[in-house]
Specification:
99 residues, 17% helix, four-stranded mixed sheet
Length: 99
């Protein structure tokens, strides 16, 4: 597993290793310009958590995602998986950290 000091460094590192899709969370899917992935169509293969020293708004999680068809992408989200519009199955999957 790689280590990064900032969200920007984590995103850059993942992109350098082929994680080129930028995913957004919507219900129980990941969506990007190239299409959608259902919660059962991908695995979270890397997770990086960042805590703000003084500002909770600086807290974020960067996920490296790989689809079962070999597509690689990134999700960047704030702490907690209770964001509005997030489906229960996707929230559950994001709470599991594989090390």
């Amino acid at each position: 597993m790689y280590t990064y000091d900032t969200v920007t460094a984590a995103v850059s590192g993942l992109k350098a290793r082929g994680y080129n899709l930028d995913f957004n969370l919507l219900g129980n899917e990941l969506v990007c310009v190239e299409g959608k992935l259902n919660v059962d169509d991908f695995d979270i293969v890397e997770v990086y958590r960042f805590e703000g020293d003084s500002d909770p708004a600086d807290e974020a999680v960067v996920y490296g995602v790989e689809s079962h068809k070999g597509q690689k992408g990134i999700i960047v989200t704030g702490y907690g998986t209770s964001a509005e519009g997030l489906g229960a199955d996707l929230a559950k999957k994001l709470s599991i950290i594989k090390e």
